[in-house]
UniProtKB/TrEMBL annotation:
PANTHER family: ROPPORIN-1-LIKE PROTEIN
Locations listed in the record: Cell projection, Cilium, Flagellum
InterPro entries: ROP_DD
First-listed, main subcellular location of the protein, grouped into a coarse class: other
Species in which this protein is naturally found: Erinaceus europaeus
Keywords assigned: Cell projection, Cilium, Flagellum
Family, similarity comment: Belongs to the ropporin family.
Entry protein name: Ropporin-1-like protein
Lineage: Eukaryota, Metazoa, Chordata, Craniata, Vertebrata
Length: 198
């Protein structure tokens, strides 16, 4: 049996004063982030908002780059979002990472493929996972490191994207060590030359 149509007048409906601003910020965030699944992303957005966690929101609208080997949905902007959400601890729980990954509507198969590259039980070192994510974006070690620098840098967008040399060297060694074609001697020569030219 259908419910009767009920008419309400403005005096009967109480709208919380903060609701319009919450909906406005939510709408702007959805437009900037362009989630593949708006409902799933919205659930993650409002869950993070209620917990006081960093929101799953890109800084600006971004399109996937054409240089990706496969369309993973992963972009540099989404890695920046994950970095904002996960970098407060050196180690991140895999379950927490998977929840945040799903909130960004990224394919879980891709997450599992990344985790197979760095086998772990319950936790993974955040910067190593970030480096692996950046390696999915580009086809070469240099383009992966460019993405690492852009995600980790605290410089304003459009500037140098600088990070501490020790961080760069550590992640460069890590990614180079995963490539069987890169010799460790070549890695050290490159890093020594880079450091000498700083």
């Amino acid at each position: 049996m259908p419910l009767p149509d009920t008419m309400f007048c403005a005096q009967q409906i109480h709208i919380p004063p903060e609701l319009p601003d919450i909906l406005k910020q939510f709408t702007k965030a959805a437009i900037r982030t362009q989630p593949a699944d708006v409902l799933q992303w919205s659930a993650g957005y409002f869950s993070a908002l209620s917990r006081g966690d960093p929101l799953p929101v890109k800084d600006r609208v971004e399109l996937p780059t054409a240089t990706q080997k496969t369309d993973t949905g992963l972009t540099q902007g989404l890695l920046k979002v994950l970095h904002k959400q996960c970098s407060h601890k050196p180690m991140v729980k895999v379950t927490d990472l998977e929840r945040r990954w799903r909130d960004l509507c990224l394919p879980v198969e891709q997450l599992r493929a990344l985790l197979r590259l760095e086998p772990c039980e319950d936790e993974i070192e955040w910067v190593k996972f970030l480096a692996l994510g950046c390696s999915m974006l580009g086809g070469s070690l240099n383009s992966s490191m460019r993405s690492v620098c852009e995600v980790l840098s605290e410089d304003p967008e459009g500037s140098g994207a600088r990070i501490p040399f020790d961080t760069f060297a550590r992640l460069y060694r890590y990614l180079a060590g995963m490539d069987p074609d890169v010799q460790s001697a070549d890695t050290e020569t490159y890093l020594n030359t880079l450091k000498a030219n700083m």
